[in-house]
Amino acid sequence: MSWFTRLLGRSDTPPPAATVMRPAPPRPAPASPPAAPTESLPMFRASAAEQLNATRGGLLDKVRLRLRDAFTPSQPVMDPAMFAGRATILATLIRALEDQRLHVVLFGDRGIGKTSMLHILARQARDARYLVHYASCGEEADFSEMFRGVAEALPLRYHAGHSPIDGEAKDASMASLLPAGPITPRVVSDLFARLTGTRLLVILDEFDRSPQGGFRRQVAELVKTLSDRSIRVQLVIAGVASDLTELVELIPSIRRNILGLPMPSMEADEVTALIRNGERVSGVTFEDPAVQTVVTLAAGSPYIAGLLAQHAGIIAVDRGSTAVAPQDVAEAIGRAAEEIGARISERSRYALDRATADGHRAGLADLAHASLRNSGRFDGTAITDAAGTPESRATLISRATDDYGLIEPVPGDPAGRLRFREEGVPIYLWMSVAREGLA
Length: 439
Hints:
The chain has helices spanning 3-8, 59-70, 87-98, 114-127, 143-152, 167-171, 185-192, 214-228, 268-282, 288-298, 302-318, 326-341, 346-357, 361-373, 390-403, 424-438, and strands at residues 103-108, 131-136, 200-205, 233-240, 258-262, 285-286, 323-324, 407-409, 418-420. The protein is an alpha/beta fold. A hairpin with an 8-residue loop joins β8 (407-409) and β9 (418-420). α9 crosses α10. The longest helix has 17 residues, at 302-318.
């Protein structure tokens, strides 16, 4: 029976040549309505407590369960055992904090691994007996509220004015020493200046979402006062940006106190390590051609690498295997394209359809790849289409900017680089072109 005839409720099987018709015996009326065939519906394979369904529990079901922890494209890496590559960046971060007593601004494109890096840094710092406070910023971030929260997490026993064996200091926090009402960077630094017996690391993630102006200016002033007074507190600020000046309103005198650290795309060996880590945790193995396909299509993005690896692993398990083959990755690309495509706006999808009809899809795919490899920034030289000429490249850039509205100049960029207006578009475009190519 073909899918089309099944859809219509018909059968491909011809009736027999001759049929003897006999009256059917009468059937008694059922005592109660038949039960709904829920057994035919898709079911969760494990409980919310991470326990397999009682009717399942074979090797493949256990592998599928472990795949969730092996590859987490929608969540940051929390376990150092799953943290792949990035050793140089982590070492630079630790050296800046520990040896140079600097504050750090970590910046880069979305999905490049900044939050994972911060969680691993926090874990390493706690192992070194640092006090660590992690906070995620938002549009309503308020300086007083933010740093009252930091003080609330600081035990009073680390305040120089209180003895560690003082009964009052046993369960109290430093927030009890702050005055009522709004607090200023000076008030916060005065409190932190009394910190003793440890060091404090304040991590402010997603700083690009914080309100520009007052909040960012107060954070910059706090950095200055902490540095000027050699207080045992350092800030690590992270957000989506092409440089640190997009995140922090720099006061000229604090430039020497801040390290701006770009988060680059992953190298091929780092993406390979990410996949091999997932193999160890999940129990699936990736054939070498499958690994190479994921590495190539990831374009240095840990998000794309994890997304493709997770989908490919599940596809292999669903066909009854723990070995991921290239065809599993090919199918994973299709799933990834559909998943990401559902997140982009209707306006962008319509613009991509227009660009495709006008013959500009290959050129836009080049720009998407360049965007993924270069923290979301690119210029016209990224177009490598064999048929491309300087004139045709200029035409594509012009049309993608003015007619399709897909890209725009990066504000204030001295090199005049460009970026996609909607962050999901380059990944969707790249995955869609890859799916078509492999098909």
